[in-house]
């Protein structure tokens, strides 16, 4: 082999080594990208699960709100029940007194008109 061929062979070997180093660096970058993609996929999955959980909690909160509103209405009814009872008792007393007065007036008139009945 002559000097030129040896020189060419050395250059080819140096390029091959350089290319090998470049390929190794690229392979390392590919490995890093794969790891990052796995992490992104994992984060995406966790985010999807979190979104589903939040949606589920939102539905449950709506149910709790509905139950709370229903309970508040029932409490209002219970609080106003005594007032309704008092109004009902006052109404009954009024009608009893009115009935007694009307009956008394009717009895007085009947006694005045027909004293022999009483």
Overview of the molecule:
This protein has 118 residues and is mainly alpha-helical. Helices cover 94% and strands 0% of the residues. It is built from one helix and no strands. The longest helix is centred in the middle third of the chain and has 111 residues, at 3-113. The radius of gyration is 50 Å and the shape is rod-shaped. The N and C termini lie far apart (160 Å).
Q: Tell me the strand percentage band.
A: under 5%
Number of strands: 0
Span between N and C termini? 160 Å
Radius of gyration (Å): 50 Å
Secondary-structure element series:
H
Structural class: mainly alpha
User: How does the major sheet shape up?
Assistant: none
Helix percentage: over 70%
Quaternary structure state of the chains depicted: single chain
Which term fits the overall shape? Answer: rod-shaped
Low-pLDDT runs? none
Compute the average pLDDT.
Answer: 87
What is the tally of helical segments? 1
Topology:
Blueprint: H1 3-113
Structure keywords:
mainly alpha; 94% helix; 1 helix; rod-shaped; 118 residues
What's the gist of this structure?
The chain is 94% helix and 0% strand. It has 118 residues and is mainly alpha-helical.
